[in-house]
Amino acid sequence: MATPGIGLIGLAVMGENLALNIANHGFPIAVYNRTRAVTEQYVAHRTAGKPVTPAYTLEEFVRTIARPRSIAIMVQAGKPVDSVLDQLLPLLGPDDLVMDCGNSYFEDTARRSAAIAPTGIHYFGVGVSGGEEGALNGPSIMPGGPEAAYPRIAGVLGAIAAKVPDGPCVAYMGTGAAGHYVKMIHNGIEYGDMQLIVEAYDILSHACGFSAIEIGAIFAEWNRGELDSYLVEISAAVLQSVDRDTGRPIVDVILDRAGQKGTGRWTGQDGLELGVPIPTIEAALWGRNISALKAERLAAAKVLKGPRQSRLRGASAERLVAAVRQALYASKIASYAQGMSLLATASAERGYSLNLPEIARIWKGGCIIRARLLNEIQAAFTRDPRLPNLLLDADFRAAINERQAGWRHTVRTAIGLGIPCPAFGSSLAYFDSYRAARLPANLIQGQRDYFGAHTYERVDRNGAFHTEWLVPEASANGARIVTSQPAGRGGGH
Ligand code: NAP
């Protein structure tokens, strides 16, 4: 068997499939897993006839790979990655290359990159999306690290990535933690997409009384148009599935308590850190968090009453179905606008040099958020790479304008009937806030100056101003006459 030029550590669901994908594309690969029995099982059942060489110690694994070595790590994110690196790095030398292909937190990747750089070992943080199926048949891959070393791995990553008409779903993302950062935002957007879809289901279920099977059929129909996406497709399939034991739609017997692993939360935290509004993603996060309060919700449902819910029928129901479809697409645009803004801001703040059209392109295949909409997003950022917000693109402006009435009808209907729609509502509020020439932040500044002398700016003069609010000079017709003084001159602090 040819000497492997690449190796992979970690043979759980992602690693075992990614290693097979690499081998299936003709790249001999060495594999290693901490627990020996896992490697033995893998070799016994999955690698026959493929150029996969098992190793049972890290030393043997490293020796098996031709120099300069390229090694992928696919273990549980967090401390396990540090533990593997602590054992692996002393066995490597300059010009070897290590890529962490798990869902590592981008700050961890930045820390590891900085620590490893002086050793001459090239360190990459590589986001891999698409789950088990993607790992085997073609994921979307987001590599970040030292650009000069990227050609070393471009060939193998290009071979194993998902393919779309304009190329493989992989591109060099940028330096340091850029790859893991983009993967994190991908997952945040995924949270937003999922929450929007489940709100569409919830509204149609409660407002129109449609069964899960009926809503599944509606989603399947939507998936043939502008909403064509992996998540709408699988939602239709889940809704149309029936539980063998009870004969009921399977979603009706699945407990309504959502799990999460953390990447969506990290996106929310970084939005707050960088001051970039991402309300749809935040709504998706608290939507999952409140779902986890199942016992409290059961108790609250007995005592907290909402409006009486009368069912929409006939033409009213048909109108709502059409409106929810429009709300879903418009909200998705608002959500992606937020995610892309966060990418642009992080890129500028942290020097990633992210290429937004390329990011939209590599998300078109292999990953969880793959969707027809990404073609339009790629086109918008290709037309204007400095576009400050997707909502300003002429095509997206037109798309939202066409759907604005349906979007508002959906949110109004849900609120009127007491059906929670945090992501639809936040997406619409984002749109309305972004297009507002004047927001009520003027009063916030007044409040801040009143209680903390934080000063404020004026619309008619430059500079910072302060008012002595507690001592109005006079009162006239109930109004308090106050003076705006330049801050620092006997006024603000
Ligand atoms: P996982 O359950 O996250 O991790 C299990 C693997 O990590 C096993 O190979 C395990 O080895 C190894 N491991 C754990 N602690 C270790 C340590 N201290 N030292 C050495 N090895 C250690 O596996 P996964 O689901 O395949 O995911 C791998 C990575 O891909 C994760 O970062 C995950 O977040 C990311 N990811 C997963 C998916 C998915 O759909 N599952 C999708 C995209 C990305 P042992 O067998 O010895 O325990």
Can I get a quick summary?
The protein is α/β, with parallel strands linked by helices.
Describe this structure in words.
This protein is an alpha/beta fold and 493 residues long. The chain folds into three domains: 6-176, NAD(P)-binding Rossmann-like Domain (Rossmann fold), CATH 3.40.50.720; 183-434, N-(1-d-carboxylethyl)-l-norvaline Dehydrogenase, domain 2 (Orthogonal Bundle), CATH 1.10.1040.10; 441-486, Single alpha-helices involved in coiled-coils or other helix-helix interfaces. It is 53% helix and 9% strand. The chain is built from 20 helices and 13 strands. The protein has helices at residues 13-24, 36-45, 58-64, 79-88, 106-116, 131-137, 151-160, 178-208, 212-222, 230-239, 250-253, 263-274, 279-291, 294-303, 314-350, 356-362, 373-383, 394-417, 422-434, 441-452, and strands at 6-9, 29-32, 52-54, 70-73, 97-100, 122-129, 140-144, 163-164, 167-168, 465-466, 474-476, 479-481, 485-486. The strands form four sheets. Strands 3-2-1-4-5-6-7 form a seven-stranded mixed beta sheet, with helices on both faces. A two-stranded antiparallel sheet has the order 8-9. β1, α1 and β2 (29-32) form a beta-alpha-beta unit. It binds NADP nicotinamide-adenine-dinucleotide phosphate (NAP). Residues 10-15, 33-35, 38, 74-77, 80, 83-84, 102-103, 128-129, 131-132 line the site of NADP nicotinamide-adenine-dinucleotide phosphate. NADP nicotinamide-adenine-dinucleotide phosphate binds next to α1, α4, β6 and α6.
